[in-house]
């Protein structure tokens, strides 16, 4: 793969480049960090911004994420998943931690309430799905039952716990759990994201 | 799931898989996360499921790409450079094996509190053995006196990536809370340590992990029942404004 610095509509960074940079950082090569940042920051910041919906907080959390990436790079295990997946996992966790510790939680709940009165799918996630790779995700999401997709989006993109998903949708917790599980399993099948173990090449 | 399986286990495996799926979305309440973590330790299949569903979850962020402001790049890379420089300093003392053995707990652990904190019973031991050790930050006489006290009792726990040690000395009416490998508090916030007595909390100061995630705080423990740590707005609060993510009982 060649250059991976991304523009607003640029190609998604290569998983290989991210992995190489992350493994280099893990091996103690801090000079590889700028390349790692450049290859992943738009995805990390975009996800964190989507969850937090606040640019200032998203910047803070993104900074924390990258410090955590740097500190914990050695614990990245390529046999368990992709390098971008690992970084996005850390990013998502920190973003939802921020959401849940935030005083604005009750405000967000009100916002969900008003949004839920429109009987349409979450518009933000729809309009955000733009690029080429995104078409696959959009197509997969479209094939999910609306209920499953909604439950998955509320959990992942809005940072709700499954208990909050149930309460937001006015459904029993068990139903929410089932929708989240079935939705994710269906997405996995549709998007072909089986576990990406590293191949010895 | 068969009835007998249901009777034998609090959750059948399908229910556990549902929790694993929610865990891949970071959508579990702390109690459920504890259940999942315990199950994952024993179930390679669910570990694989979790890894795989995390990849699927990460793919959901495709299309949300947003370039962050250029200043963030400078800020992140500057912080990483500073941290890389700090790591070239000598590593902090490793934990003393004498503390990690000898599970003769006279002290009980109580109740502890949500916020994603799970205290493994096996991670918590109390011993009378305390060895003074070098520390990167400035030594404080009082802290050493507690650590060296004949009646010092040590509790160990883990919280996220941090090793937490609380050493309590009745004769010194004090405790020392030490952390190793602890992530810094989120920006705009601080960890704050509290001494608890009869349901009242008195601040014992802020807990600010250094570059290597290490810190220690002297906790006054005169007539105290325990100690706790909360996440507070930067600079700390007069009284806790959030539930403790870590609490220990001296009883």
UniProtKB/TrEMBL annotation, chain A:
<comment type="similarity">
    <text>Belongs to the sigma-70 factor family. ECF subfamily.</text>
</comment>
<dbReference type="InterPro" id="IPR007627">
    <property type="entry name" value="RNA_pol_sigma70_r2"/>
</dbReference>
<feature type="domain" description="RNA polymerase sigma factor 70 region 4 type 2">
    <location>
        <begin position="135"/>
        <end position="186"/>
    </location>
</feature>
<dbReference type="GO" id="GO:0016987">
    <property type="term" value="F:sigma factor activity"/>
</dbReference>
<dbReference type="InterPro" id="IPR013325">
    <property type="entry name" value="RNA_pol_sigma_r2"/>
</dbReference>
<dbReference type="Pfam" id="PF04542">
    <property type="entry name" value="Sigma70_r2"/>
</dbReference>
<dbReference type="InterPro" id="IPR013324">
    <property type="entry name" value="RNA_pol_sigma_r3/r4-like"/>
</dbReference>
<dbReference type="InterPro" id="IPR013249">
    <property type="entry name" value="RNA_pol_sigma70_r4_t2"/>
</dbReference>
<feature type="domain" description="RNA polymerase sigma-70 region 2">
    <location>
        <begin position="36"/>
        <end position="103"/>
    </location>
</feature>
<dbReference type="InterPro" id="IPR039425">
    <property type="entry name" value="RNA_pol_sigma-70-like"/>
</dbReference>
<protein>
    <submittedName>
        <fullName>RNA polymerase subunit sigma</fullName>
    </submittedName>
</protein>
<dbReference type="Pfam" id="PF08281">
    <property type="entry name" value="Sigma70_r4_2"/>
</dbReference>
<keyword id="KW-0731">Sigma factor</keyword>
<dbReference type="InterPro" id="IPR014284">
    <property type="entry name" value="RNA_pol_sigma-70_dom"/>
</dbReference>
<feature type="compositionally biased region" description="Basic and acidic residues">
    <location>
        <begin position="98"/>
        <end position="120"/>
    </location>
</feature>
<keyword id="KW-0805">Transcription regulation</keyword>
<dbReference type="InterPro" id="IPR036388">
    <property type="entry name" value="WH-like_DNA-bd_sf"/>
</dbReference>
<keyword id="KW-0804">Transcription</keyword>
<feature type="region of interest" description="Disordered">
    <location>
        <begin position="98"/>
        <end position="128"/>
    </location>
</feature>
<dbReference type="GO" id="GO:0006352">
    <property type="term" value="P:DNA-templated transcription initiation"/>
</dbReference>
<dbReference type="GO" id="GO:0003677">
    <property type="term" value="F:DNA binding"/>
</dbReference>
From TrEMBL, chain B:
<dbReference type="InterPro" id="IPR018764">
    <property type="entry name" value="RskA_C"/>
</dbReference>
<dbReference type="InterPro" id="IPR051474">
    <property type="entry name" value="Anti-sigma-K/W_factor"/>
</dbReference>
<dbReference type="Pfam" id="PF10099">
    <property type="entry name" value="RskA_C"/>
</dbReference>
<keyword id="KW-1003">Cell membrane</keyword>
<dbReference type="GO" id="GO:0006417">
    <property type="term" value="P:regulation of translation"/>
</dbReference>
<dbReference type="InterPro" id="IPR027383">
    <property type="entry name" value="Znf_put"/>
</dbReference>
<protein>
    <recommendedName>
        <fullName>Regulator of SigK</fullName>
    </recommendedName>
</protein>
<keyword id="KW-0812">Transmembrane</keyword>
<keyword id="KW-0805">Transcription regulation</keyword>
<feature type="domain" description="Putative zinc-finger">
    <location>
        <begin position="15"/>
        <end position="47"/>
    </location>
</feature>
<keyword id="KW-1133">Transmembrane helix</keyword>
<feature type="region of interest" description="Disordered">
    <location>
        <begin position="82"/>
        <end position="105"/>
    </location>
</feature>
<feature type="domain" description="Anti-sigma K factor RskA C-terminal">
    <location>
        <begin position="119"/>
        <end position="244"/>
    </location>
</feature>
<feature type="compositionally biased region" description="Low complexity">
    <location>
        <begin position="82"/>
        <end position="93"/>
    </location>
</feature>
<dbReference type="InterPro" id="IPR041916">
    <property type="entry name" value="Anti_sigma_zinc_sf"/>
</dbReference>
<keyword id="KW-0472">Membrane</keyword>
<dbReference type="GO" id="GO:0005886">
    <property type="term" value="C:plasma membrane"/>
</dbReference>
<keyword id="KW-0804">Transcription</keyword>
<feature type="region of interest" description="Disordered">
    <location>
        <begin position="229"/>
        <end position="251"/>
    </location>
</feature>
<dbReference type="GO" id="GO:0016989">
    <property type="term" value="F:sigma factor antagonist activity"/>
</dbReference>
<dbReference type="Pfam" id="PF13490">
    <property type="entry name" value="zf-HC2"/>
</dbReference>
């Amino acid at each position: 793969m060649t250059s991976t610095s991304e523009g607003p509509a640029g190609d998604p960074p290569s998983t290989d480049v991210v992995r190489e940079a992350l493994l280099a950082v893990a091996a103690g090569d801090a000079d590889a960090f700028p390349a790692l940042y450049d290859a992943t920051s738009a995805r990390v910041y975009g996800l964190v911004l989507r969850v937090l919906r606040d640019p200032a907080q998203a910047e803070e959390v993104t900074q924390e994420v990258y410090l955590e990436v740097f500190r914990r790079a050695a614990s990245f295990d390529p046999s368990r998943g992709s390098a971008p997946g690992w970084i996005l996992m850390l990013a998502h966790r920190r973003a939802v931690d921020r959401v849940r510790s935030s005083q604005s939680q009750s405000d967000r709940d009100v916002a969900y309430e008003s949004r839920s009165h429109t009987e349409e799918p979450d518009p933000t996630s729809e309009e955000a799905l733009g690029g080429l790779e995104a078409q696959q995700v959009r197509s997969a999401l479209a094939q999910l039952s609306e209920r499953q997709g909604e439950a998955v989006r509320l959990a992942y993109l809005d940072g709700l716990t499954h208990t909050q998903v149930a309460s937001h949708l006015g459904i029993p917790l068990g139903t929410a759990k089932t929708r989240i599980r079935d939705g994710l399993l269906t997405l996995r099948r549709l998007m072909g994201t089986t576990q990406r173990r590293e191949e010895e090449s | 799931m068969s009835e007998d399986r249901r009777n034998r286990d609090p959750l059948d495996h399908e229910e556990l898989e549902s929790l694993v799926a929610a865990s891949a979305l970071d959508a579990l309440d702390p109690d459920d996360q504890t259940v999942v973590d315990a199950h994952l330790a024993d179930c390679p299949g669910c570990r694989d499921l979790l890894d795989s569903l995390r990849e699927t979850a990460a793919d959901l962020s495709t299309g949300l790409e947003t370039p962050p402001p250029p200043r963030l790049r400078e800020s992140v890379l500057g912080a990483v450079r500073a941290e890389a420089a700090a790591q070239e300093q000598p590593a902090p003392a490793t934990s003393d094996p004498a503390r990690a053995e000898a599970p003769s707990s006279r002290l009980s652990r109580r109740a502890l509190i949500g916020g994603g904190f799970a205290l493994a019973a096996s991670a918590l031991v109390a011993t009378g053995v305390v060895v003074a050790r070098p520390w990167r930050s400035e030594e404080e006489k009082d802290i050493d006196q507690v650590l060296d006290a004949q009646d010092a009792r040590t509790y160990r726990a883990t919280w996220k990536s941090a090793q937490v040690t609380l050493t309590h000395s009745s004769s010194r009416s004090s405790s020392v809370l030490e952390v190793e490998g602890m992530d810094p508090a989120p920006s705009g916030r601080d960890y704050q340590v509290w001494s608890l007595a009869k349901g009242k909390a008195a601040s014992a100061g802020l807990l600010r992990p250094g570059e290597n995630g290490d810190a220690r705080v002297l906790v006054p423990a005169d007539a105290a029942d325990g100690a706790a740590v909360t996440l507070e707005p930067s600079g700390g609060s007069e009284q806790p404004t959030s539930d403790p993510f870590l609490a220990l009982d001296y009883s």
